[in-house]
């Protein structure tokens, strides 16, 4: 671990969703993780005990609301209530992955906006600030009436590919909504972009229509924020190869990788899938095609900057 951070008013706690990432973040900051216990009763109820004083402290709680989404979210809400009742000075929620972010608008009549509901719950439970990574929809920041710092993992993914010696690159967005993300990577790598024009007839089902841009003879890098069942990304990879791409890499910030995702990736035209550890990757989802990068240095830098009242946006300049 690095040298002790020179302020005993900074505390970092981890809940159960992604303890390895939280431990790495705490090590980067130079602090031990805060002491707490998380227990579950036989009926599924969660009990949390904070085993050290946090009175007057600035507390950061690290919790991805990934699968099991509802359990992890409820665990976080209970922890926030405990911190508030224990007189923490400020309560900062660090969410490497924000569950329910894809439900950010009413796509049809009588639908909820669940991403907004989650924001309301976090605020009501006692959060003073949220630090999130690559929100599926940037406008989710506007769902909060408390400060929110929106971190970006794309520079970490880009740096990895820059070190691989790849040539004749084209950066590909798997849909129109991801063009801004693809453009940022393309600008850093001084490469052109292409766009997969797709139609999604129903959730988790994607149909490729055509490719906008030249990919013939090029090494394509698909970039997305979330890969869930991997249907979109594997269909896109096949379409790129059929359109003349030399080889296809893919990357994402959040490896949800549910259902048939691993099987699809292993059987796909994707040469390598590069992901971050915003979501803990269990052994059952390991694959020789998957390379995982750590966002711990990014989260640690953001925590220190928030604690020291310094700019977070300068991390990306």
Please characterize this protein's 3D structure.
- The structure is a single chain.
- α1 (19-29) crosses α8 (296-307) and α4 (154-162) runs parallel beside α5 (179-189).
- 28% of the residues lie in helices and 27% in strands.
- It has 317 residues and is of the alpha/beta class.
- It has a seven-stranded mixed beta sheet. A five-stranded parallel beta sheet has the order 1-4-5-6-7, sandwiched between helices. It has a two-stranded antiparallel sheet with strand order 2-3.
- α2 (69-85) links the parallel β4 and β5.
- The model has no long low-confidence stretch (mean pLDDT 94).
- The protein has helices at residues 19-29, 69-85, 114-125, 154-162, 179-189, 231-242, 261-266, 296-307; strands spanning 10-14, 36-40, 46-50, 58-62, 90-95, 129-133, 148-151, 169-173, 193-202, 205-212, 219-227, 247-255, 270-276, 290-293.
């Amino acid at each position: 671990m690095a040298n002790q951070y020179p302020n005993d008013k900074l505390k970092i706690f981890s809940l159960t969703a992604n303890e390895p990432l939280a431990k790495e973040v705490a090590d980067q900051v130079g602090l031990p993780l805060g002491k707490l216990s998380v227990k579950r009763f036989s009926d599924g109820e969660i009990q949390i005990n904070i085993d050290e004083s946090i009175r007057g402290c600035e507390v950061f709680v690290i919790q991805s609301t990934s699968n099991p989404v509802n359990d992890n979210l409820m665990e976080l809400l209970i922890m926030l209530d405990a911190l508030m009742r224990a007189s923490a000075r400020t309560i900062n929620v660090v969410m490497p992955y924000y569950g329910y972010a894809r439900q950010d608008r009413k796509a049809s009549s009588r639908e909820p906006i669940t991403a907004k509901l989650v924001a309301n719950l976090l605020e009501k439970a006692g959060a003073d600030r949220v630090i999130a990574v690559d929100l599926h929809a940037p406008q989710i920041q506007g769902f909060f009436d408390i400060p929110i710092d929106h971190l970006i993992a794309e520079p970490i993914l880009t740096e990895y590919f820059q070190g691989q010696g790849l040539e004749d690159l084209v950066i590909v967005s798997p849909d129109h909504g991801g063009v801004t993300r693809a453009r940022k990577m393309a600008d850093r790598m001084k490469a052109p972009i292409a766009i997969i024009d797709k139609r999604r007839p129903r959730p988790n089902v994607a149909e490729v229509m055509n490719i906008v841009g030249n990919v013939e003879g090029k090494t394509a890098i698909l970039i997305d924020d979330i890969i869930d069942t991997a249907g979109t990304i594997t269909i896109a990879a096949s379409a790129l190869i059929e359109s003349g791409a030399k080889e296809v890499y893919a990357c994402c910030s959040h490896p949800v990788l549910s259902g048939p995702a691993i099987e699809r990736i292993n059987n796909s035209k994707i040469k390598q899938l590069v992901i971050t550890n915003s979501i803990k990757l269990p052994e059952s989802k390991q694959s020789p095609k998957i390379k995982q990068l750590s966002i711990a240095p990014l989260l640690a830098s953001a925590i220190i900057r928030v604690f020291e009242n310094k700019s977070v946006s300068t991390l990306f300049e």
